[in-house]
Design goal:
mainly alpha, two-stranded antiparallel ribbon, disordered N terminus
Length: 199
């Protein structure tokens, strides 16, 4: 699990990076270039999900992303999107016969990165905004906001939706390209609301 101090440092670095961007190159310096390592890590992340053999593991990529965040080198909207993509694949494990996130704070950090990128006009971050917060909430509170998260039922093997917040409107879902609630519920069954998993 990511140490709390490292998570705080990463958030501070993200805030500093956003502040630098809002300065709009006060001294006329050229705009920041996207980070090639983060681009490579994001490509590896996606390739690993299509069955390609990749030398680095998810854990390796996550460590590299966290190191770049701590150094303050995650600057551009593309950088933030690539970092969020890697962080949202932080590992899962079984605890008391339940699938549990090993580092749920990584999902929350990914959400902040994706939101910052999307609000800066980077369209590729759009789907990551709901996906990352749903993943975080699914593994911390046992519910989700938009309905993008699915979890395999360990008894039946079927994919199910963690309970979805009924206060989230379809208009808000549409902003991020998420189908209406009624359509989501036609595709997958929704789990009954249970007591939130203990941390």
């Amino acid at each position: 699990m990511i140490p709390r101090a490292a998570f705080i440092c990463a958030c501070v670095a993200l805030t500093a990076s956003c502040a630098q961007q809002s300065g709009q190159n006060v001294q006329g310096a050229p705009a920041a270039q996207s980070h090639p390592l983060l681009r490579d890590l994001a490509r590896e992340d996606q390739a690993s999900r299509t069955g390609s053999t990749i030398a680095r593991t998810d854990a390796d990529r996550i460590k590299l992303v966290l190191a770049e965040l701590a150094k303050g080198t995650v600057r551009t909207p593309e950088d933030k999107t690539n970092a969020a993509l890697v962080l949202q694949h932080s590992g899962l494990t079984f605890c008391n016969n339940r699938l549990t996130a090993m580092s749920p704070d990584n999902y929350l950090l990914a959400h902040h990165l994706a939101t910052s990128a999307f609000e800066a006009g980077y369209a590729d971050a759009r789907a990551l905004v709901p996906a990352t917060i749903d993943r975080y909430l699914s593994f911390t509170e046992g519910r989700q906001k938009y309905g993008t998260s699915r979890i395999n039922n360990q008894q039946t093997g079927a994919e199910e939706l963690p309970p979805i917040d009924r206060n989230t409107t379809d208009a808000e879902r549409a902003k991020y390209g998420v189908p209406p609630l009624a359509d989501l519920l036609k595709r997958y069954p929704e789990q009954k609301r249970e007591k939130p998993p203990s941390s």
